[in-house]
Amino acid sequence: MPRSPAVARTLPSLRRALGDLRARRATVALVPTMGALHDGHIKLVQHAKRRASKVVVSIFVNPTQFAPHEDFGSYPRTWKADLAKLAAERVDLVWNPGVGTMYPPNFATRILPEGPATENLEDRFRPHFFGGVATVVGKLFTQCRPDIAVFGQKDYQQLKVVTRMAADLDLGVKVIGVPTVRERDGLAMSSRNVYLTPEQRAVAPVLHRTMKEAAKRLRNGDDLKAVIADGGRTIESAGFTLDYFEARHAETLAPILSIQDGPVRLLVAAKIGTTRLIDNIGI
């Protein structure tokens, strides 16, 4: 049985552990997670292992990125299973702070990102979200001081927000985006997929199929506005409540008029039942 990774839960223990990891001038990669690890997270860890000599995985369910009506309390927490998966990957250190460590009494400083965080995508439906993400990731970066940080591309707007923040604040971290890991039928792996009923799970791959068809049509020269409208109707007719289906500039996330304005990313968010799914692909 693989040896469990070291676990730090306080800042002094984290600093001691990081000092040990860096004793031989090791390069350190950080993989930030909220736990409930699935194969997509493991791919991030494996990518981190290829890019650095030591890997730190943070597990912290961040309350500040949940709105009052969202699922903070019911968000899946699978600590023993998570630790076993990380042990199997021979992760060097797990950073598992409590809420009181991350947000001690009188905590009063937050990062409010602009740019990609304010392009009327996720921010339109979850206006609290990117402030919470930027603040917690900023703290993780300063706590762990990694050389690189690895994120999945599934949360594409988040990836661009974190990348911009790290550059703007000179945090000395290279942010790397790893392609989305998918089920065989194309559904993007997500911790929230466990909420889907069998019937909803059968419908969920419509999102990816619709994006692939839209990308194909756009590459073939079809009108962007018509393609996006058709894709939205397809998603809604499958039983989703559509939040957005958009073609955006892949770096800035600004709106575009044609794929000549690219590089281009298709992004979608839709709810089926009570579960909200997001996905994206490049063109």
Notable traits:
single chain, 283 residues, Rossmann fold, Pantoate--beta-alanine Ligase, Chain: A,domain 2, six-stranded parallel β-sheet, three-stranded antiparallel β-sheet
Describe, in plain words, how this protein is organized in 3D.
- The protein has 283 residues and is of the alpha/beta class.
- It folds into 2 domains: 7-178, Rossmann fold, CATH 3.40.50.620; 196-275, Pantoate-beta-alanine ligase, C-terminal domain (Pantoate--beta-alanine Ligase, Chain: A,domain 2).
- The protein has helices at 11-21, 39-51, 79-88, 99-102, 122-125, 129-144, 156-168, 198-203, 206-219, 224-237, and strands spanning 6-8, 28-33, 54-59, 93-95, 148-152, 174-178, 241-249, 264-272, 275-282.
- The strands form 2 sheets. A 6-stranded parallel beta sheet has the order 1-4-3-2-5-6, with helices on both faces. It has a 3-stranded antiparallel beta sheet with strand order 7-8-9, with helices on one face.
- Helix 7 (156-168) links the parallel strand 5 (148-152) and strand 6.
- It is globular and about 55 Å long.
- CATH class descriptor name of the largest domain: Alpha Beta
* Spans where pLDDT lies below 50 across 5 or more residues: none
Task: Please tell me the total number of domains.
Answer: 2
CATH evolutionary superfamily of the largest domain: HUPs
Which structural class matches the secondary elements?
alpha/beta
Helical residue percent? 25-40%
Total count of strands: 9
Could you tell me the strand content as a percent range?
Answer: 15-25%
**In which order are the strands of the major sheet placed?**
1-4-3-2-5-6
Overall shape: it is globular
Count of separate DSSP helical elements = 10
